[in-house]
Amino acid sequence: NWNYTPTGITTYTLSAARSTNDDNVATEGVKNQAGAISPRQDSAYVNITSSIDGTMRWVPFAKLGFNAGLAWYHYAVSRKDSIVGQVYSDEKSSSEYSVLSLGADYAFSRSIATACTYQYYKQTGESNPNVSYGNPRVRYQGSQVGCSASFKID
Fold it and tell me: Do residues 125 and 103 make contact, with C-beta atoms less than 8 angstroms apart?
């Protein structure tokens, strides 16, 4: 994380993260229709999530503030399938998610304040849906607007 405040009225924040997760799934042999038992099958999943998130807050007056933010996430999944230790399948998939947000807030007094935000978000679908770990990420995009008012007893 990095925070930077060059003046008293503007603040910048930048965050970067990377997380990894390995998971092995073992499946015992299964009887087929002929009654024979198939060999044990193992699947190894490697999940990597990388993200960058940046925000800016500008407060030109004590009661008025503006916010802008941008976030990007990259999801990568790798799956290796093996039977009795022999790898027979090695596949990869990836997808991305991004968010743009804009907002403003105004404090009428010490007790009363309002705020509104707008977000636009977009998710790409899995590049290879057969590799997904759990539910595959599907493609979508959308936006949302939210406003709030608060009353504080101080």
Answer: no
Q: Which residue in this structure is represented by tokens 């590799």?
A: 131
What would the pLDDT profile of 100-109 be if each residue is shown by its tens digit? 999 999 999 9
Q: Which residues have a Cβ under 8 Å from the Cβ of 13 and sit 6 or more positions away?
A: 1, 2, 3, 4, 53, 54, 55, 56
Per-residue tokens: 149: 């008012």
pLDDT tens readout for residues 10-51: 999 999 999 998 777 766 666 667 776 666 677 788 889 999
Beta strands in the chain (DSSP E): 2-4, 10-27, 41-61, 64-83, 86-107, 112-123, 140-151
